Amino acid sequence: MSLAIDRFLIELLRSDLRGDNATSPQPLNPDGESSTVILTKKEYDELARKARRLEPPHLPSYVIPEIPDHCKLKGSENFWEWDRNMSFLVPREVYTFTKHGTISDTWTQDVCAKWEHYARMIILASVTDQALHMLLAMDPDATAHDWWVAFRERYAPNDALATISLVDKFCNMPRMPSDHAGFLEWSKRVLNLTTHIRKNEIDVEQLMAARLLANIPPST
Predict the structure, then answer these.
(1) Cα 171 from Cα 161, distance rounded (Å)
(2) Distance between CA 113 and CA 93 in Å, rounded?
């Protein structure tokens, strides 16, 4: 009878979307009925939304993942590296909730509060003292997403001066070291700078302009 039940729910949904409350559809007998049910996108999205609301809310485990010291946020030199590490090391819900500020439409206010608290705990475990002092100076009511935005604006600003500085650092990279340890440090620096350039969506024209501006002598 699962097919009949599914078709009955679909007919109820269609009736609800049409605003037709005068008559209720009757359960369909699967015998002789086609197994194909065609839904419009609006009907499918609404059915999926209602089905999600029937699922129990997914709550955080409150187990703080171990964040290695080299993965923690230190400042402008590793903001995007920290962001990338967080996407791998922390639960997907925490990363999405923190970076984008988006939540599931099925979360109640209580569920949101639990995820907010969990996200803050993880952020505090993933930053160094320098970044921690910055958080302590913020509004106590700031959300985990507010923290991420503040880090982004402080350590990876996307403005003209930041672009000039970023391109200048990249164009003035030292030669590749010949020793293994030096090469690892050099390649890490290259990766960090190229990640900043890509995340800031700097195109070729901006890159050339920034390089020219970086060569202008200071005013006397």
Answers:
(1) 15
(2) 13
